[in-house]
Write a structure and sequence with these properties.
Distance between the termini: 22 Å
Number of strands: 5
Strand order of the largest sheet: 3-4-2-1-5
Order of helices and strands: HEHEEEHHHHEHHHHHHHHHHHHHHHHH
Structural class: mainly alpha
Shape: globular
Helix content: 55-70%
Length: about 450
């Protein structure tokens, strides 16, 4: 099955009540940190550590799963947590839903009742581009009523009790304080008295009862409460600190960390805040200090590249991103940013280098529409119009714009040799678009 066909086979549904597409926050550094924190929990659950932790840019409190390969968590919930153990407790609970097969049974029930066709469940990912402040992202839009969405995601009380019990076991096995699960539930406890429309999505889909809270408290009682190690604390502070610096107002970040503190996380948060003001000189001063602390850290070189790119200093950005690629040659997001910087110079040698970097990025991160836009531009500048049309068609398919995807895929089919890899990719998009349009 092609990459695009696999993409549209995923039933990703986020908040249908919101106008427009929500965005997924993509950041190599944050993703690395959260994956590090999730890994021991996933191992304890007997699940692959390749399960991806995906941040949805949404201020409400929610976390959920819809398949066996992804755990979604809202940025609003991430920013409210007070410890890495609380984040790991959320991952443990959602991992339990995967390990216990809860989402599979719900999806099967919906399919058996032919509800998917009736409520217009998405065939694929309607992808979007996040704001410049948050970086590139994949938007998730849902064409279903909120009541139908809740029916899809809603967990029964029995499922919640089962997931809680499994999650506690995972936390204990991973050496994480199981009392963190109670702390997470207490975040939502005060919302029980609110009307359904005012409750956060998590509470509407994860029933919270006094019995459930008492049960979690009893299971955690008497268990060891190990302190997180320094590595765990470090990656939590780094990931949450960078996320809040991107999503909060720069003035809020600068008030919180002060302008003179010299510790690493404060400098990281200030560098992002200054970049967003924008005050590029101060941002560069902070990231230069970070690189002096950790000269082999690819993410600080990447951040330096981002600051330089946004400041319009493209040659310097290329050098910074190039160093990041040397340090993390398999990171798709860093490769994509490097390719984008090379395209900014608008000369043929750099465009050829950009194409090579973007193709490597696509092999590792194929569902990134901003990457596909850049890949199409690189092909077009080099006169490879058929391949540019394929990349554009794939981008529109990811965006859920299937009529446009069909148009560009037909154009590519007429330009590329029959049976070539590009021609085959165009046929995959055509097949996908036809299926999607027939279901509307």
């Amino acid at each position: 099955m092609s990459l695009i066909a696999r993409c549209v086979a995923l039933f990703f549904v986020v908040s249908a009540s919101m106008a427009g597409a929500q965005t997924i926050i993509r950041d190599a550094e944050i993703e690395r940190g959260l994956q590090n924190l999730a890994a021991p929990i996933l191992r304890a659950a007997g699940l692959p550590t390749s399960i991806q932790i995906i941040i949805v840019e949404d201020g409400s409190l929610n976390a959920f799963v819809v398949d066996a390969r992804h755990i979604f968590i809202h940025s609003g919930l991430l920013m409210q947590l007070e410890s890495p153990a609380e984040f790991q407790a959320i991952i443990a609970h959602e991992a339990a839903h995967i390990a216990n097969g809860h989402f599979t049974r719900r999806a099967g029930n919906i399919g058996a009742a032919n509800t998917a066709a009736r409520i217009g469940l998405l065939l694929g990912i309607a992808a979007g581009i996040a704001s410049d402040e948050a970086g590139a992202g994949i938007g998730l839009a849902a064409g279903i009523a909120s009541s139908a969405q809740r029916a899809l995601f809603a967990h029964t009380r029995a499922e919640e009790a089962s997931a809680d019990a499994s999650a506690i076991r995972y936390l204990i096995s991973a050496g994480v304080d199981p009392a963190a699960m109670e702390a997470v539930l207490n975040i939502f406890r005060g919302q029980e008295a609110l009307s359904v429309g005012r409750q956060d999505p998590y509470l509407r889909t994860h029933p919270l009862t006094r019995d459930r809270l008492r049960s979690v408290r009893a299971m955690a009682a008497g268990q060891d409460a190990p302190e997180p190690d320094n590595t765990t604390l470090y990656w939590w502070a780094r990931s949450q600190g960078k996320l809040t610096a991107f999503l909060r107002a720069p003035s809020w970040t600068l008030r919180r960390v002060g302008r003179n503190s010299s510790d690493e996380i404060s400098r990281l948060r200030r560098s992002v805040a200054y970049m967003r003001q924008p005050d590029y000189d101060r941002a560069l001063a902070e990231v230069t200090a970070l690189i002096s602390m950790r000269p082999s850290d690819p993410y600080y070189h990447e951040l330096r590249g981002q600051i330089l790119y946004e400041a319009g200093r493209f040659q310097n950005a290329i050098s910074a991103y190039g160093r990041a690629v040397e340090l993390a040659p398999r990171d798709g997001l860093i490769l994509a940013s490097y390719g984008r910087a090379l395209l900014a110079t608008d000369n043929t040698p750099d465009t050829r280098r950009a194409l090579e970097a973007l193709q490597r990025a696509r092999a590792r991160d194929p569902f990134n529409p901003r990457l596909m836009r850049d890949l199409g531009l690189a092909h077009a500048r080099l006169g490879e119009i058929g391949l540019a049309s394929v990349a554009t068609a794939e981008r529109y398919a990811l965006l859920g714009r299937f009529e446009d995807a069909q148009l560009h895929a037909n154009r590519a089919s007429g330009l590329l040799p029959h049976g070539s890899s590009g021609w085959l990719r165009a046929q995959d998009v055509l097949n996908t678009a036809q299926i999607a349009l027939s279901r509307r």
